[in-house]
Design brief:
Helix content: 40-55%
Distance between the termini: 29 Å
Shape: globular
Structural class: alpha+beta
Strand content: 15-25%
CATH architecture of the largest domain: Sandwich
Radius of gyration: 19 Å
Largest sheet: 6 strands, antiparallel
Number of helices: 10
CATH class of the largest domain: Mainly Beta
CATH superfamily of the largest domain: Regulatory protein AraC
Number of strands: 11
Number of domains: 2
Length: 266
């Protein structure tokens, strides 16, 4: 059996897109949320897709569509290896390209051969050396794909839902994810006791304040590394105690180290 591998691919003409290719993976991810729109396709094996629509099993050819800020996890079914690709598309590019404030997907798991073939084609330019003509075709094909399967929704920026009692805490965490503001201080911003704040926060986001902040930090790490920032500087900017702390957290969420990610070709 081939060894597990995880790689990220980028194309200089498509700076707003990134492709993850994972092969023979048995890695189980924690619930997490991306800053980008995500289009995933299962190449081999089966995955259990956890999201707020309920757990769904997808096999080879299955496609997942995930909006920015949507908490989810895709893990191997029965701990058997599986292979997949995930195309990440910058939210700002999508909104400008489609002329919408935000995009929502009515269905996040699809089992249709035509959609599977389309998603497969969308991944091709980033996995190889595409010509200018192929890049232009990719841009139009991706636009058509998103227009067909997505619909414009009311924009709430990067926040998970419309304004809520925990909105002051969410706004602070998004402005300063590196800040070590305590739960007590966040609760005070929202006029609640810490215990009530944690319950309300989890009801709104699906996760604890600590998990939410860590996810924001790790998305920030990924963004800064993709910009070529040094590892030590990134760890400091995103509020990690040191580089080793950042590495442990990043690997737990992405199945590879920040150094591996930073070293991927751009």
């Amino acid at each position: 059996m081939p060894a597990p591998s995880h790689r990220f691919h980028r194309h200089p003409a498509l700076p707003w897109a990134e492709l993850r290719v994972s092969r023979q993976s048995c890695y189980s991810y924690r619930l997490h949320a991306h800053a980008q729109y995500s289009i995933g396709i299962v190449d081999e094996g089966e995955t259990l897709f956890l999201h707020d629509g309920g757990p769904e099993t997808l096999s080879a050819g299955g496609v997942v569509l995930i909006e920015p800020g949507h908490w989810h996890a895709c893990n191997p079914e029965t701990q058997q290896p599986w292979s997949y690709r995930m195309l990440f598309v910058q939210a700002e590019w999508v909104h400008e390209r489609l002329g919408v404030g935000a995009l929502g997907f009515a269905r996040r798991a699809l089992h249709e051969p035509e959609i599977s073939r389309w998603a497969d084609c969308l991944c091709q330019p980033l996995a190889g050396s595409a010509t200018d003509a192929q890049v232009q075709h990719h841009v139009q094909s991706l636009t058509d794909f998103l227009q067909l399967l997505g619909s414009a929704v009311h924009a709430h920026g990067p926040l998970p839902r419309p304004p809520d009692a925990v909105l002051p805490a969410l706004q602070h965490m998004h402005r300063s994810p590196e800040d070590e503001t305590s739960v007590q201080a966040l609760a005070l911003r929202c006029g609640m006791s810490p215990s009530r704040f944690i319950r309300r926060f989890r009801a709104v986001t699906g996760v604890t304040p600590g998990a939410y902040r860590l996810n924001l930090r790790l998305n920030g790490v990924r963004h800064l590394l993709a910009q070529g920032e040094p590892l030590a500087s990134v760890a400091q900017q995103m509020g990690f105690a040191d580089q080793a702390h950042m590495q442990r957290a990043f690997k737990a969420h992405h199945a590879l180290t920040p150094g591996n990610y930073a070293g991927m070709p751009r």
